[in-house]
Amino acid sequence: MINIPKREFQTPERYWDDAQEGDECVSPAYAVTEARISAYAELTGDFTPVHVDEDYAKTTPFGTRVAHGLLGLSIADGLKTQCEYRFLPGMSLGWTWDFLLPIRINDTLRVKFRVGTMRASKSKPGWGIVVLPSELINQNGEVVQRGEHRLMIPRRPQATA
């Protein structure tokens, strides 16, 4: 059984029509722990020593264990769902994502995103596409990862007469 945290939101989920280019949001904080890095290794089967073996990691340019790059992307995606600015369930169309700096044990991360561009879907009436430029930021204000997420979001249903 999974322990789902209780979260009370002050704002409702948004339709595509409720968004505006330039809207921004910053997520709650997320602590990167040794246990979370180990759990990610278990989940994915990625036991690369720089992530799971401190003695080995000390011999690398990082000098210590670091989180998997894709763990950072997963954290960014999860943190977006905890923001007050959230969309109705839609479809992810993909990510473009860059790893800039290592994520270390005991880092505290937040994701900052904005609505970059918007357009109505050409192939799916009733849906719109948003591009969310995003940054994963550590406790020192450093951008450790950045990129953009493309989403297809439901449009507000048209009222019938």
Automatic annotation (TrEMBL):
UniProt xrefs under InterPro entries: HotDog_dom_sf, MaoC-like_dom, MCH/BMMD
Source taxon at top rank: Bacteria
SUPFAM superfamilies: Thioesterase/thiol ester dehydrase-isomerase
Residue ranges annotated for the MaoC-like domain, each copy included: 28-122
This protein's name: Acyl dehydratase
Organism of derivation: Aromatoleum toluvorans
Lineage: Bacteria, Pseudomonadati, Pseudomonadota, Betaproteobacteria, Rhodocyclales
